[in-house]
Write a structure and sequence with these properties.
- Helices cover 59% and strands 13% of the residues.
- It contains 9 helices and 5 strands.
- It has helices spanning 14-25, 32-42, 45-54, 62-75, 91-103, 118-132, 139-153, 156-161, 175-191, and strands spanning 2-7, 28-31, 81-85, 110-115, 166-170.
Length: 193
């Protein structure tokens, strides 16, 4: 089983690259954003709880996220692996994910870190909001989400660097160019297995 964390600030293209990885390598996409949006659309208790945080540009509490992640993984035990998109977002989540995966003897093999400049992030997210109509893609919320990312999520790079798992990809290139670099990293790992 191959487990990959796709890492980067909001607007780096994690969702787009996840879709390409999943199509090529036949893995399960585990996007906490998608899971939470589906729960919100359903109006489930977890969705209503999550919406309060998302609408303010804040991170949803770990216990809510971890329940959803574990449930999705249990529904897909026969998969070739998972692409974690938007999760983990905090050191506590990363540690909990490591424990969860250790129980299954299927650790995270690589962190693909998409690096994109801050001004480009704003442009991308504002453009996305015009296309998707997402209510959490307004300028004030975007700035707050990026600030939360920098203070709470970015420290994960050090956490995973210490494990020797971070692969840095220049996310400023075209979608296709970024995916070529991602494929090289995944194929290199798979060829050594």
């Amino acid at each position: 089983m191959l487990n990959i964390v796709l890492f980067g600030a909001p607007g780096t293209g994690k969702g787009t690259q996840s879709a390409l990885i999943i199509e090529k390598y036949h893995m399960v996409h585990l996007s906490t954003g998608d899971l939470l949006r589906a729960a919100i659309a359903e109006g489930s208790p977890m969705g209503l709880e999550a919406k309060k945080y998302i609408d303010q540009g804040l991170l949803v509490p770990d216990d809510v996220i971890l329940r959803e992640v574990q449930s999705t993984m249990l529904k897909n035990t026969q998969s070739k692996g998972f692409v974690f998109d938007g999760f983990p977002r905090t050191i506590a989540q990363a540690e909990a994910l490591d424990r969860m995966l250790a129980e299954k003897n299927t650790p995270i093999q690589m962190i693909i870190y998409l690096e994109v400049g801050e001004e480009e992030l704003y442009k991308r997210i504002l453009h996305r909001s015009q296309i998707s109509g997402r209510t959490d893609d307004n300028e004030e919320t975007i700035r707050k989400r990026i600030a939360v990312y920098e203070s709470q999520t970015f420290p994960l790079i050090d956490y995973y660097d210490a494990q020797g798992k971070v692969i840095r990809i220049d996310g400023m290139h075209t979608i296709d160019q970024v995916f070529v670099e991602i494929q090289k990293s995944i194929d290199d790992y798979l060829s050594k297995k």
